[in-house]
Amino acid sequence: MSRGEFYVGKILLTSAVGDQPYYSVFEDDGETGYFYACDERNSEDPILDALHIYNVCGVKDKDKPSLFEIMWKDTRTGLFINGHCHAIFDFAKMEGRCRTNFPPSKCRKVWKPSAR
Question: DSSP secondary structure string, 14-40?
Fold first, then answer.
C-alpha cells in the first residue's frame, strides 16, 4: 500500500507495487489527475491503461489537504482519495474502471497479451 497527503493541483507522482510484475501510478500534473496500470515487463511502454480521476479546475476544495491511498488485493489495485474509491484496475481481467468513466472503455488502449 502507498498513502500520503497531497494538495490537488500540486504536482505529485507516486506508485505502488503488487506481488506480480504490475504496478500502479497516481499522477497529478497540475491540471489533471490520472491513475495508471503498468507492467514492468514492458520496459519501452509500461503503461497498460490510464483512467482520468479529476480536472484540477473542477475540484472545489483543492486548497485543503487530501489523503490518497493505493491499495492492492491479489491482482487488483484501487485508488482511494479521502476514503472514497476513484478507480480500480483488475490485472487478471485486464480492465479498469473509474468514477468519471473517462476515457470510455471503447476508446482506451487494448491491454497487451503479455499483461496476463
Answer: EEEE-SSSEEEEEEE-SSEEEEEEEET
